[in-house]
Amino acid sequence: MTQPQEVIKYCPKCGSGDFIYDGSKSFKCQTCQFHFFINSACAVAALIVNDNGELLLTRRACEPNIGMLDLPGGFVDPMERAEQSTIREIKEELNLEITEMQFIASYPNEYVFSGYTVFTIDLAFLCKVKNFDNMHAQDDISGFEFIKPDDIDFNDVSSSSIKNIINAYKKLI
């Protein structure tokens, strides 16, 4: 019971309980006529490869999917460009400085947080970094590891979108 129609019961504008789900992607308040759409939130993921051709993967430090493998990245802040968000997130999580980036692919995902499904569109960027000298886990990751793309255990990867992004990268190389 994490889908928006199962969680949202009252109009966020007037508080009325007469907030009707249309069955696809929006709610409409029968009292104040407020129309609320369920849209995808934007998130970014960085594909960073070392000189040995190994992909940098992180371990999630918090729910959802605590302890599982993930790509470094996170949510795009309001009014922030996806590229700027990628630079910010990689600095926050790993203390790395991105020097180049190239868009690779995007995939939809369902991110369940606090008992609520947030639909996301995850944008993947292939990134080069200045160096790995001062890299350390911080923010919402507990650790990191470099793994050859063909050796990644997809049962240990946190979400379908990250699996899809890694597979898209594997087709490129």
TrEMBL record:
SUPFAM superfamilies: Nudix. Keywords: Hydrolase, Magnesium, Metal-binding. Its cofactor is Mg(2+). Residues 39-170 form the Nudix hydrolase domain. It comes from the Bacteria. The keyword Metal-binding applies. InterPro entries: NAD-cap_RNA_hydrolase_NudC (IPR050241), NUDIX_hydrolase-like_dom_sf (IPR015797), NUDIX_hydrolase_dom (IPR000086). PROSITE patterns: NUDIX. Coiled coil: none annotated. PANTHER family: ADP-RIBOSE PYROPHOSPHATASE-RELATED, NUDIX HYDROLASE, NUDC SUBFAMILY. This is NUDIX domain-containing protein. It comes from Carboxylicivirga marina.
